[in-house]
Amino acid sequence: MLKFLTLLAVIYLLYYIIKQKIRNRKLAQQGIVVEQKGLRPITLMSIVMVVMYGGYMIYFFIFQTMSS
Predict the structure, then answer these.
(1) pTM of the entire structure?
(2) Do the beta carbons of residue 45 and residue 13 sit within 8 Å?
(3) How far apart are alpha carbons 48 and 25 in whole angstroms?
(4) Mind listing the pLDDT tens digit for each residue in 30-43?
């Protein structure tokens, strides 16, 4: 199930990046310059992925040691 959540997250990230690039190009054509503020989407996704997989590893090791 974690594989499917990861796949969905990657697909959504690609959709978001493409949508933002199109939006920024339209605004640039109108003469409006948009500044990047805060965390970039790829940074946010990498943090979420590390937390998800780290949590899964901890969960796996806890239940593996309990069943032994």
Answers:
(1) 0.64
(2) yes
(3) 28
(4) 998 888 788 888 88
